[in-house]
Amino acid sequence: MKTDPVGIFDSGLGGLSVLQQVRKILPEEAILYVADSAHAPYGCKNTPFVEQRSRFITERLIEQGAKIIVIACNTATASTIEKFRQDYGIPFVGVEPGIKPAIQLSRNGKIGVLATTATLASERYKQLVHRFASSVQLYNQPCPGLADQIEAGQPDSSKTQLLLTQYINPLIAENIDTLVLGCTHYSFLSEAIKKITSGEIIMVDTSQAVAEQLKRVLQSEQLKSRNFSKGISLQVKYYSTGSITETARAIKTLMHLDVEVSELC
Ligand code: DGL
Question: Which atom of ligand 1 is nearest to the CA of 14?
């Protein structure tokens, strides 16, 4: 039904960057957000594990009435979305590293990609590169440990700074002019990245594009909430498979919001 909620999930809190854009573009939609914090990060896990966790969460969201699911995680999208579109009777919207917009934006054709080890190794990513990136030079940089810093609610700590420098400096040395944030967690690092790159590198973050795609799919599937006409801004319900206190604390740091988080088990 049109008034049913939109389900959004991620390995943890990275998908909140997508949620923020969805709230801006679609304030009339009720949302269920699930952070699989007990199992984050996904980026260093194998495909069967990520698929099993994503399936578990998808089924909980469907049980709670989700009319559509946004897989707000590049890693989970890469290993599940094709199957899930066949297995479940609802639409799915996924995320992928913004290679296509980066190619449009880059002037020198040298593009860095920050993503998880699993995303960069995935067949889906290889196909994306094969189909669209033959005319540019891509510098893929796996970033172990970076998503954990966001999970810990520490986007500005010295450890985060150190990891970022370690991952980005080799890309700067290659003279990249564009940097793709290929993991939803990394959106929360855009200010820190700007400092390291002295604001001279174009950053590509797809969270707004994902929210716009969600809107298009809701419209084409005739699932868009009608509460818009009444000007109602509906609630977001937050769930975590990890510590609900830690998750609420990290949400406060990342989104400056006091929210109640429920346990999902
Ligand atoms: N936020 C996720 C992504 O977009 C994964 C981070 C992780 O769990 O490693 O890939």
Answer: 1
